[in-house]
Write a structure and sequence with these properties.
The strands form 4 sheets. The chain has a 6-stranded mixed sheet. Strands 15-18-17-16-19-20 form a 6-stranded antiparallel barrel. The chain folds into 3 domains: about 140 residues, Probable tRNA modification gtpase trme, domain 1 (Gyrase A, domain 2, 2-Layer Sandwich), CATH 3.30.1360.120; about 80 residues, 2-Layer Sandwich (Alpha-Beta Plaits); about 70 residues, Aminomethyltransferase beta-barrel domains (Elongation Factor Tu (Ef-tu), domain 3, Beta Barrel). It is globular and about 65 Å long. Helix 2 crosses helix 8. It is about 20% helix and about 35% strand. The longest helix is centred in the middle third of the chain and has 13 residues. With about 350 residues, it is an alpha+beta fold. The chain is built from 9 helices and 20 strands.
């Protein structure tokens, strides 16, 4: 398809019969022949691998690298150290909207790999500088309760990387950066590997009994785990505080982009807050639907789907901040009302 980027593993996905879809400017697998439901449950019960090469990578290095990231992002890298990863936000300077949510891999003293969402890489480079290396590597996310056990058979050193740890490793002569991160609520790692070696690693993971999974399962997994997706729970007009992610803001720092408008919102209090809704039955709620209480609209859904683990619908929605857990609501899906209840997040406990 003209105008789309392609993963280094594109041919492998097609050989497996994957359904390919445009996503963030890339053409990526949404599901393989097993289907999203089976791929989702395999991640919750065993192990899967996602190709997430569409995510950006920006290498920032040099004596001033730490200071540049500290001035740009909400979180405080001084809370961690080289060999660690940290979740953080890049805010709009005018209204504190979340321009992107990012994982920073602190590779070594003055070397950072900043991992933005696919479509936001250019704006992140504009904010922090650095060198985009997205097209030099593939990124494979191995996730699930048996992920490390199965990974150990083909890349033992990667299987030893702990949660939110970062390590430079070698796989059959290919230099890799491995982080104990993911987007599923399960244990696992993400492996950045040079393009030339990516196919061999992918094949090795298949041989270890790790099922390939597409973006469809990645989305239902992150929704069960209550994790935000940029463009849904984060984005224009949405701040870190509204999304319930105030923990990602290091108020002890004197400076970061968007600090003043975010501080003003903290002072006056948020007008809405991201919450979870469990719906009755198997019909999935969807994004951008009105949430009703006592027949009156009180908010809007941002994401919704069927939960394969819970076997009923789940949704994230912005609601008034005082809305209590257990509040009965209805979601208006094309004129039909889905009965639901406000519930705490995550929907499915993280392992």
């Amino acid at each position: 398809m003209a105008g789309h980027e392609y993963s280094p593993l594109d041919a492998f996905h097609r050989q497996l019969g994957a359904k390919m879809v445009p996503f963030g400017g890339w053409e990526m697998p949404v599901a393989y022949q097993a289907g999203t439901l089976d791929e989702h449950l395999a991640c919750r019960r065993d192990a899967v691998v996602f190709d997430v090469s569409h995510l950006g990578t920006v290498r920032v290095e040099g004596a001033d690298a730490l200071d540049r990231l500290q001035r740009a992002f909400t979180n405080d890298l001084h809370k961690v150290a080289p060999g660690r990863a940290q979740y953080t936000h890049l805010l709009d300077e005018t209204d504190a909207s979340v321009l992107d949510d990012i994982i920073v891999w602190w590779v070594r003293d003055d070397v950072f790999d900043v991992m933005p969402n696919a479509s936001n890489t250019d704006r992140v480079v504009a904010a922090i500088g650095g060198t985009e290396t997205t097209h030099d590597r593939a990124v494979l996310a191995v996730q699930g309760p048996r992920a490390k056990e199965r990974l150990a058979a083909v890349f033992a050193a990667a299987a030893e990387v702990g949660r939110f740890r970062v390590q430079e490793l070698d796989w059959h002569g290919a230099p890799c950066v491995v982080a104990g991160t993911g987007y599923t609520g399960e244990a696992g790692v993400e492996i950045a590997i040079p393009n030339a070696a990516a196919g061999d690693l992918w094949a090795a993971l298949m041989s270890a009994g790790i099922m390939p999974a597409g973006l469809g399962a990645r989305d239902t997994l992150r929704l069960e785990a209550g994790l935000p997706l940029h463009g849904h729970e984060l984005g224009a007009g949405i701040t870190s505080l509204q999304a319930g992610l105030g923990w990602v803001v290091a108020w002890g720092k004197d400076e970061f982009r968007g600090r003043a408008p975010l501080a003003a919102e903290r002072e006056r209090g948020v007008a809405r807050l991201l919450r979870g809704i469990a719906t009755e039955g198997r019909r999935p709620p969807r994004a951008d639907c009105a949430v009703l209480a006592d027949g009156q609209s009180i908010g809007t859904t941002t994401s919704g789907n069927f939960s394969p683990v819970l076997e009923h619908g789940i949704a994230l929605a912005f609601l008034p901040p005082g809305t209590a857990d257990g509040t009965a609501v209805a979601i208006d899906v094309r004129g039909s009302h889905l009965a639901g209840t406000v519930v705490p997040l995550p929907f499915v406990a993280k392992h």
